[in-house]
Design brief:
Blueprint: H1 3-23, H2 29-51, H3 59-82, H4 85-106, H5 114-129, H6 139-170, H7 173-184, H8 187-200, H9 208-228, H10 234-241, H11 244-254, H12 262-280
Length: about 280
């Protein structure tokens, strides 16, 4: 992975942590996720007019990704409903690159150096370790939250691999990403109407500005990742992207006022060490 790609994915990680933090602020997580999806779709429409549609060969990949993203949105919002960001985010993001790496090495036959494999493993352990701390919620709620977090990790790994292959099939990461964001904006509002009704979606109006700001961050972050997966191994991109947990940890502690522990410091150190291995090898 070249230095420009590496730095671009790191910037995407910062943006990713930022929009995840917005889901935990003052608005129901499911409504917040729906608002972000709508914002991404609206912002992507002009881009799609410029890029045009990707080749038809990429459309099945888009359809698969939209389905997996829907599962991701639902599972992540339900996890955030039950537990702190500092508990859910590391589990979901920490396991995802390990799963994605396993798939890319076995099914996609991508080749990685021993140092890169070690870096991915170390990074995964570090970010997952961030979840091992005191929690605010009862044990039953945490078990349910853990289940949703694990489901979220599976969805992340799945759509990451799908989008990497889809963008490569399209031969144009920008056209693929633009179509993905536009189509991806449709299922969540429909599901939200079924779940809450139009009246139940009214609280979103008070958060249009932060919602669209978060949507812009989410769009730029994942658009960058999709592009990066066309010029670098999917496993490496997925791993570097998950350094967002370090930035999310700072947000959780200093903005959302969640507890800090020595475990977080150790986990952050392991994450940085894993990141260094990825860059060096």
């Amino acid at each position: 992975m070249t230095l420009p790609v590496f730095l671009a994915v790191l910037c995407a990680a910062v943006l990713h942590a930022g929009w995840n933090a917005m889901i935990k602020v003052r608005l129901d997580p499911f409504l917040a996720m729906t608002l972000l999806c709508i914002a991404c779709g609206v912002i992507a429409v002009p881009a799609l007019c410029v890029t045009g549609l990707p080749p038809r060969a990429a459309w099945p990949w888009v359809a698969a990704s939209v389905t997996l993203h829907l599962g991701y949105y639902v599972s992540l919002s339900e996890a955030y409903r039950r537990a702190d960001m500092g508990q859910i985010y590391p589990i979901a993001r920490g396991l995802a690159p390990l799963i994605a790496a396993l798939v890319s090495l076995t099914a996609l036959r991508e080749t990685l150096s021993a140092g890169s494999v070690a870096g991915i493993a170390l990074l995964g352990v570090g970010v997952a370790l961030l979840s091992l701390r005191g929690h605010r919620h009862p044990a039953g709620q945490n078990r349910a939250a853990l289940g949703f977090a694990l489901l979220t990790a599976t969805m992340i790994a799945s759509y990451t691999v799908v989008d990497g292959m889809g963008a490569r099939t399209a031969g144009d990461a920008n056209a693929y990403a633009a179509m993905l964001f536009v189509v991806d904006a449709l299922p969540m509002p429909a599901l939200c109407v079924c779940r809450y009704g139009l009246a139940g979606m009214a609280p979103m109006r008070r958060f249009l500005l932060p919602g669209f700001a978060g949507g812009a961050m989410a769009l730029v972050a994942y658009w960058t990742v999709i592009w990066a997966m066309t010029v670098a191994p999917i496993a490496l991109v997925a791993a570097v992207r998950e350094t967002s947990v370090v930035f999310a940890g700072f947000i959780a502690v200093f903005i959302l006022k969640e507890p800090f522990s020595r475990v977080r410091a150790v986990a952050a150190t392991l994450t940085v060490a894993g990141l260094a291995l990825l860059r060096l090898f």
